[in-house]
Design the sequence.
């Protein structure tokens, strides 16, 4: 088998092989940890900053960071400002995973339980009656309906002739040719 040797003259990183040989870590987590160990100590470690120098996006990097945190290679601590407001998150990157005793000191999220929740009956009050909306009782319409043909269009037939002075309808028929 051929042996490849790399000549290291400048710009190289020396790191522990522990994370590279850990079979429980994914290749993505191993690569991200190696990248973070190669960056300067004062570099701004944010998910957006890591996404900027990697091909992966913020979500992919967040997934790898959570995996590294689960295995003890990364610890996060939320900083607080002097006035009590929450500040930035401080990441601590470890070449070897921190043991379980050290991880116990990090704050964990808890779901507090209520010891004896009170069961009070809600007070039932008579609902007040509101004034109903006023219905229009005016018989005159102010809008013309589009479907009301008798009011909007005049009839194409002439009005009925009066009995006096005009022939009846029957008399207005045209004579037939025999």
Sequence:
């Amino acid at each position: 088998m051929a042996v490849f040797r790399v000549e290291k003259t400048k710009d190289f990183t020396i790191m522990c092989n522990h994370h590279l040989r850990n079979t429980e870590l994914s290749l993505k987590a191993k690569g991200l940890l190696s990248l973070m160990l190669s960056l300067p100590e004062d570099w701004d470690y944010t998910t957006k900053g890591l996404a900027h120098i990697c091909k992966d996006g913020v979500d992919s990097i967040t997934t790898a960071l959570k995996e590294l945190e689960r295995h003890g290679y990364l610890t996060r601590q939320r900083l607080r400002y002097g006035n009590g407001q929450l500040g930035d998150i401080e990441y601590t990157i470890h070449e070897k995973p921190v043991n379980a005793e050290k991880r116990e000191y990090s704050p964990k999220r808890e779901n507090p339980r209520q010891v004896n929740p009170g069961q009070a009956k809600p007070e039932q009050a008579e609902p007040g009656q509101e004034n109903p909306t006023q219905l229009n009782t005016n018989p005159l319409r102010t809008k013309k309906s589009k479907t009301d043909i008798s009011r909007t269009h005049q009839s194409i037939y002439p009005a009925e002739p009066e009995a006096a002075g005009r022939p009846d309808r029957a008399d207005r028929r045209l004579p037939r040719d025999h």
About this structure: The two ends are 121 Å apart (CA to CA). Residues 100-105 have pLDDT under 50 and may be disordered. The longest helix spans residues 58-70.
